[in-house]
Amino acid sequence: MHMIGRRKLLRHMALILGTAPVIGIAKAAAGPVVQVYKSPTCGCCSKWVDHMSAAGFDVEATNVSDVNVYKKEHGVPGQLYACHTALVEGYVVEGHVPAEDVIRMLEQKPDIAGIAVPGMPLGSPGMEVPNPVRYETLSFDRNGNIEVFAVHEP
Hints:
This protein is α/β, with parallel strands linked by helices. The protein has a single domain (30-152), classed as Glutaredoxin (3-Layer(aba) Sandwich). The protein contains 4 helices and 7 strands, in the order αβαβαββαβββ. Strands 2-1-3-4-5-6-7 form a 7-stranded mixed sheet, with helices on one face. Helix 2 links the parallel strand 1 and strand 2. It is globular, with a radius of gyration of 19 Å. The N and C termini lie far apart (59 Å).
């Protein structure tokens, strides 16, 4: 039986899987990168990060002392502020937005700046409770226009 080295085996596996050759440990292809800016002490933000990771996103969470800096820098309207701000493929994702809404936005590529779930509605991802409430995911553009993107019923 012909034996091949570990590196050569990994290169062959990468080619078979349709990825570029790798040296070292092969990693499964991840979904889009979501860069999250959050407070280091926010437990619900960490739960939202877990929600997005479970949905297949490659999440990079950065703990910051002032999340509002990122909200302002990326044009999130004040009335849409929530506890964390994320960036994915040129869009802003503000607050506890369900992964399904982020996926829909990335598939449809609407002409908006981003989507948001203002505040911290009970029942949204990261805010799971026994008695969830109805909440909306809102879209916003660079001109301050806000529209309903999705409605989430308990």
